[in-house]
Amino acid sequence: MKTAIVTDSTAYIPKELRDQLNIHMIPLDVIIGGKSYREEVDISANDFYELVKKEDKLPSTSQPALGSFVDLYESLSKDYDEVISIHLSSGISGTFQGAHQAQGMVEGIEIHPFDSEISCMVQGYYAVEAARLAKQNLAAKEIVAKLDELKQSVNAYFMVDDLSHLQRGGRLTSAQAIIGSLLQVKPLLHFEDKVIVPFEKIRTRKKALKRIVAIFEQEVNKGEPLQAVIIHANREKEAHEWKEELQETYPDVDFTVSYFGPVIGTHLGEGAMGFGWSRKMG
């Protein structure tokens, strides 16, 4: 059985790595100034943050059209027997549901939608692992079982720099946003039951990042091999400096740097930082 691996653009897997592992990507859209862009195709993260600075109105986002899934799966059916389609959490987007709907509309190929229950490069961990296992000729059901196993060790925390994005998106009241900004509150967020929820409110950016590292250290102390990713919203220099600092402290962990692209960046805002990890597989 030949298995194709699909994910969506919010995994933010570098194109070179996608090409190397033969991971197929379906983009979500971001709408800026009335114009729609397919992230990772029509617009890069850097271009997105520059464009947003020139706009008075916040961008909006949309999931892939159902027809995009159908077209991709039909194209893959010419060369593959099965597809594992890995998507951002169903609690924050209808993308996974779109894959599920398309599943019953395509003949000649077996489709396995997979809810990562998370997003960004931590979601990408699932696609990378699935692609590695597909190269070993494992059947889709075996790969999905391995991904479910990986899910037990996946975690991520996010710190937002600008509370106005959360407030406009309905996650904070206006009063909370005003008071939080005055107090320099940096809310830590994480995924729980597929949705983004507050974890703790920390007074400063520096303390928020330290708190994330303290949580991560508990995982390091369990002694399992880990991979970790620092995720930034247009703060590349800070992300790489943080990576160097962490690599020195935890030399056995495999660290990388990634970014919040247009779709996730729309909801978190420029300056957000994230940190995610999982057990290293294989």
From TrEMBL:
<keyword id="KW-0446">Lipid-binding</keyword>
<dbReference type="InterPro" id="IPR003797">
    <property type="entry name" value="DegV"/>
</dbReference>
<protein>
    <submittedName>
        <fullName>DegV family protein with EDD domain</fullName>
    </submittedName>
</protein>
<dbReference type="InterPro" id="IPR050270">
    <property type="entry name" value="DegV_domain_contain"/>
</dbReference>
<dbReference type="InterPro" id="IPR043168">
    <property type="entry name" value="DegV_C"/>
</dbReference>
<dbReference type="Pfam" id="PF02645">
    <property type="entry name" value="DegV"/>
</dbReference>
